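During the first year of the project, the team set up a workflow for recording each protein of interest as an amino acid sequence followed immediately by a discrete structure-token representation. This format lets reviewers and collaborators read both layers of information side by side without switching files. As required by the reporting guidelines, we include two representative entries from the current panel. The first entry is reproduced here exactly as it appears in our internal archive.
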Amino acid sequence: MCWWQRYPHIAAIVLALLAFTMKGRGAGDMAVILAAIATGISGLIGAFHAGVEYGWWEGVTACATVAASGGNPLDAIMNAPVIRCDVAPWSLFGISLAGFNFLISLSGAVLVFALLGKSRKGA
């Protein structure tokens, strides 16, 4: 699940970079809105993952990732350690990385929407 949280961040970065290159207010604003939505989605995935880590609900059944190697792919898959989604590998003040992703990403998305709303009122 931690990988799932990264994909929306990648999309948000691409969309934010596109917003810098777009001419005109409408297209740039749309790219920023989509980037904020992507960031919010990552936060929601983080909330789900944090809930699994804290034991609030069940996670998905396939909680493993395999690192690529130059050898036999089947051996790499068979010998790879299973990464558990229901155990936080690290936490600070009782908050896991997934929990921090939820707090920071969702707050960032809300802040972007608030700033967009404020700029529209001032225009």
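The second entry, processed by the same pipeline in the following quarter, appears below.
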Amino acid sequence: MTPPRSNSRAISRSSTEGACPSKPTIASRPIRRRNSRSDILRHYNPRVRIDCSAPTRIDLAGGTIDIWPLYLFHQPAVTLNAAISLRAHCAIEARDDGRVVLVSEDTGERVDVESPAALGVTTLPLVARLVRFFDARGLTLTTRSDSPVGAGIAGSSAMNIALISALASFTGRSLSPDEVLEIAKNVEAQVIDVPTGVQDYRPALYGGISAVELDVTGIRRVPIAVPAAALASRIVLAYTRASRNSGINNWDMMKRHIDGESRVVEAFDNIASIARRMRAALEAERWEEVGRELAAEWDNRKRLAPGVTTPAIDTLLDRARGAGAVAGKVCGAGGGGCLFCLVPPEQHADVSQALADAGARVLPFQIEDQGVHLRTSR
């Protein structure tokens, strides 16, 4: 796996993370308040346009354990994921009137205010909070996603990384990867009002197929050396046409663990072991073993909380298995969104058709080697 390319002067990225990420110094460069039109014109070129995108992901195994402090209870903990070509996009166009205009092409929502301070946090809350954090003004910021809303493939986390990258570039802030990850985690927690995991930001930032190692010393993202085409040809991704709220499901799972529910603690322990075994199987391209571990992951995940699966999800997975799928599970916390199935390459078309016939929307994708990508034009 080749390391991701550096795409922006605003973010200095590396292909792996340090064992103990440095504590970010977010205010290393003072933010100057820009209130007058002349200030805006001096700081921003009205012709500047920034386009930025970041990939979503399929979580292969070990999800939810990436929420602090759950991973500390199941050592050694690892989460496996793969960045995919369904990306989250944002575009910034500078304007000379100082106003802040936010537009979502996905929801049709629009906000137009005189300054970042005037932004509320109920409409387009993630975008609004990040614009306020960067004190960005004199811009029209437009977002859109390749993935359906509530798909469970970390679309909000990918948008988070894309927005931070674009706003850092627009405001002249230089951020390290650790700073980007810290801002993303903390702002998303403010938006969803519950603790967030840490795995979803890594594929958005770096791309590729990854193991996210979590222990008492910190968090490390390690590339998994498996050919991207070999994995992509064995996965069918489908949207169940029912969105979900991952924050709610994950919070329920976390509370049950912290409260000491033995069934839940045991299931998490099993999921941690499964992720370690699947990592070894992926690295050796032992696909039958990968399939067995995926099936075991799903069996244990359904024990974490009510609502992880639904009758509709069960029906879709049954149809997929009937068409030749080896195993499958929902993406993210469950309850809706997307599911994916591991299939022999020769059965890919049959499983895709079976899921479509059962009412799902099959989402074509490729494994994405490139993480966040930023382009500036005039």
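For the second entry, the following points were noted during internal review. The longest strand covers residues 77-94. The CA atoms of residues 239 and 338 lie 4 Å apart. Both points are flagged for discussion at the upcoming steering committee meeting.
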